[in-house]
Design brief:
Oligomer: single chain
Structural class: mainly alpha
Order of helices and strands: HH
Strand content: under 5%
Radius of gyration: 27 Å
Helix content: over 70%
């Protein structure tokens, strides 16, 4: 019974140590500003939309070329 209690205390201590480490690392993170997040999100969306359109138009072109073969 004492071994089980010791394991539970050990687990609690390890979890406490882990979360203290997480808290310490969390404070070291350099968070982007709201403006930077908005701008970079916009850039990502533009790039994704651009490449989606490129692939879509390539699909249309290749489909048309394959229809010519038939």
């Amino acid at each position: 019974m004492s071994q089980e209690k010791e394991n539970k205390n050990n687990f609690k201590q390890e979890m406490l140590t882990y979360f203290k480490g997480v808290k310490a690392e969390w404070s070291k993170v350099s968070w982007p500003t709201k403006q930077q997040t908005i701008v970079e999100t916009g850039i990502v969306l533009v790039v994704v939309i651009f490449f989606t359109l490129v692939v879509y138009f390539m699909d249309i072109i290749f489909k048309a070329l394959l229809d010519l073969i038939k």
